[in-house]
Specification:
Its main location: cytoplasm. This protein is an alpha+beta fold. It has five domains: 6-99, Translation Initiation Factor IF3 (2-Layer Sandwich), CATH 3.30.110; 107-328, 3-Layer(aba) Sandwich (Rossmann fold), CATH 3.40.50; 342-417, Translation factors (Elongation Factor Tu (Ef-tu), domain 3, Beta Barrel); 435-524, Elongation Factor Tu (Ef-tu), domain 3, CATH 2.40.30.10; 536-631, no CATH class. The strands form eight sheets. A seven-stranded mixed sheet has the order 5-6-4-7-8-10-9, with helices on both faces. A six-stranded antiparallel barrel has the order 11-12-18-15-14-19. Strands 20-25-23-22-26-27 form a six-stranded antiparallel barrel. Strand 2 (77-86) and strand 3 (91-99) form a beta hairpin. Helix 9 (290-298) packs parallel to helix 10. The chain is globular, with a radius of gyration of 29 Å. The protein starts with 19 loop residues before the first helix and ends with a strand.
Length: 633
């Protein structure tokens, strides 16, 4: 196709009476803007391409608006007025152009709701999604809780989800039927659906909140602050977590109906101070009018702006401004539909009559019904082919899901016990491999003392996407790390291998220690090599069967390949190293039977090799960044 020359549509009066060439260029330009923003864009009338010219008289403005409406009609879109400004040179205006989508398709935006306990997170979501104001005693939040103890205590302890739908004109479509929301009806009527990820505010549930921020991949963060309590408790922790994960944040101050004015002003001053500090470097903007909403929403993508809303869940004050702002939010992630499929699992279910169901986010590619994808990695690091039996998106049956969308899949011929959080469904084209170890560039946000590898291996809980597992530090580019230090660190997972990619954001924590970083190089290992960290304890008289089999078996081919890639065993060792015996394929030997008497020998697989320890003594040999003890005969 010939390239279209956009130089003919740069003037502010191009919409007044465009020629045929200009009209074609305008149509193509508007179509590209809508496609880039996943179905919508904000178009400005009366402003030139470079922004230097601005302002139209009344007749020119009316003609430009008529042209824009005809352009939108050609693209099957709606044109909604956002604001009109009257300046010295004339009128300018901004309009939301949003396409009319099919019943089974809509734009999805995920908003993580964070803040300290008792800030009013669940109450605000109950008011927004169900359309009823709160009574001041927790009436609105009851509909969002998932467990009995949450209803009794009033505190969220698990990751909750609720949706708010907007049609192509920007109107809220949530119409609760007898207090319950029908997600399917909302999605059928909506052009845009806001998914709220309700996270826990209590310090006890911090690991759940961190998993919600990393595993659910939110587009934006909504930081809730109680007007009467201010910035206390976990508020700074959650704000720092959002900043570390590069999630744009806007602030909602609740309970303004019950807070004295002087207390509210003091808390707002402290909030401004924190947002302007060196750690945040945000530009706080207090939203009071509809013009402020449009200004904040159109410039929010830069991540420097931080809009602040003051709302009341009891009186409903300023809730309309917050809904308008949510309606104007745009998708941050660009489409990766042409890449091979990659889907991360963040939860599993066993549904009666259906079977095993997994939920998560499509990171790239398109997943269609009856596709065969690779599920893994399992504890051995292998991936197995799995067919997609059915697909649900926001409880609505669909035939495909695209990149950036959340979905649930029913899988064929697999048990729920074989799947865990952190697994992935990937296309066979990617040829996926699991890794036990990975190199990561980290920044220590806080540590009470010093992280050092001199005094044993330091371990921490690693959060990377939907992965949540303890890992040990094997090597560091510096001798010790303190608060504010940067270093390249090699981690090793304790329990299972994981699927990781370079460039992924990572958070790790241990007690009060917190650090963030980017994955540089996952060190892939062959899937056929079985690796364990727990020792196989076998008791028997004299020499155990494991020692006998190790003395008889030669080094397997797969083990030799794994060994040759990192280092070579020294020839002085008289014992032969072998992979630990799988529990399902135990040799039928009488020595496997447990007896009360006799000596005991422990064996464990470390880095692809067996560690043998005898009661009398051992020889130390370095191998694969681990220490291997070889039993003396």
């Amino acid at each position: 196709k010939p390239k279209i020359d956009y130089s003919c549509i740069r003037g502010k009066t191009v919409l007044v009476s465009p020629t045929e060439e200009q009209f074609e260029a305008l149509t193509k330009k508007l179509q590209e803007l809508i496609a880039d923003n996943r179905g919508e864009t904000v178009y400005e009338i009366g402003v030139g391409e470079d922004g230097s010219e601005s302002g139209l008289d009344t007749d020119e403005y009316a003609a430009s608006l008529a042209t824009l409406q005809s352009l939108a009609a050609m693209l099957n879109a709606e044109c909604v007025e956002l604001r009109i400004r009257k300046g010295e040179k004339g009128l300018t205006g901004q309009y939301l152009v949003r396409t009319k989508v099919d019943d089974d398709d809509f734009t999805e935006i995920r908003v993580a709701v964070v803040g300290n306990v008792d800030a009013g997170k669940s109450t605000l979501l109950g008011v927004l999604t169900h359309g009823e104001l709160d009574n001041g005693r927790g009436f609105a939040r009851q509909r969002l809780f998932r467990h009995k103890h949450e209803i009794e205590s009033g505190r969220t302890s698990s990751v909750g989800n609720d949706i708010l739908g907007f049609d192509s004109l920007g109107n809220v479509v949530n119409k609760p039927d007898h207090g319950t929301l029908d997600w399917v009806k909302i999605c059928e009527k909506s052009a845009k659906v806001i998914t709220f990820i309700d996270l826990a505010g209590h310090e006890r549930y911090l690991k759940t909140t961190v998993f919600g921020m990393t595993g659910h991949a939110p587009d934006f963060g909504m930081l809730m602050i109680g007007a009467n309590s201010g910035i206390v408790g976990m508020t700074k922790e959650h704000l720092g977590l959002a900043l570390a994960l590069s999630v744009p944040v806007f602030v909602v101050v609740t309970k303004i109906d019950m807070c004295p004015p002087n207390v509210l002003q003091e808390n707002l001053k402290l909030l401004y101070k924190i947002l302007k500090s060196q750690g945040c470097r945000k530009v706080p903007v207090m939203v009071k009018t509809a013009d402020d909403v449009v200004l904040s929403a159109t410039n929010f993508v830069s991540e420097r702006l931080c809009p602040i809303f003051q709302v009341s869940n009891v009186t409903g004050e300023n809730l309309d401004l917050l809904k308008m702002f949510l309606n104007l939010l745009t998708v941050r992630t660009t489409g990766n539909d042409n890449l091979p499929t990659e889907f991360q699992i963040d939860d599993t279910y066993a549904v009666p009559g259906v079977g095993t169901v997994v939920s998560g986010i499509t990171l790239q590619g398109i997943v269609r019904l009856n596709d065969v994808l690779l599920l893994g990695p399992n504890p051995l690091g292998d991936f197995q082919p799995i067919a997609i039996k059915s697909i649900h998106r926001k409880r609505m049956v669909v035939r495909e899901v695209r990149s950036g969308q959340t979905a649930s899949f029913a899988l064929k011929k697999i048990k729920r016990s074989q799947i865990r959080k952190g697994m992935v469904l990937v296309s066979p084209e990617l040829n996926p491999q699991a890794c036990w170890e990975f190199d990561c560039e980290i920044l220590v946000l806080h540590h009470p003392t010093t992280i050092s590898s001199k005094y044993g291996r330091w371990s921490a809980m690693v959060h990377c996407g939907s992965i949540r597992q303890t890992a040990q530090i094997l090597q560091m580019s510096k001798e010790c790390l303190r608060t504010g230090d940067k270093a390249v660190v090699r981690f090793r997972f304790i329990k299972n291998p994981e699927y990781m990619k370079p460039g992924q954001r990572m958070v790790f924590r241990e007690g009060r220690t917190k650090a963030v970083g980017n994955v540089i190089t996952p060190l892939y290992t062959p899937g056929s090599v079985q690796q364990r960290t727990k020792p196989n304890k076998m008791q028997g008289r004299g020499t155990t069967s494991t020692q006998q089999s190790n003395a008889q078996k030669p080094l397997s081919k797969s083990t030799n390949e794994a060994v040759s890639t990192q280092s070579t065993l020294m020839a002085e060792s008289s014992a032969v190293l072998d992979i630990g015996t799988d529990k399902r394929n135990k040799p039928s030997s009488s020595a496997h039977k447990k007896h009360k008497g006799g000596t005991t020998s422990n064996s464990a697989v470390v880095g692809g090799a067996v560690k043998e320890a005898s009661p009398t003594g051992s020889q130390q040999k370095p191998f694969c960044n681990e220490t291997i003890s070889v039993a003396s005969n």
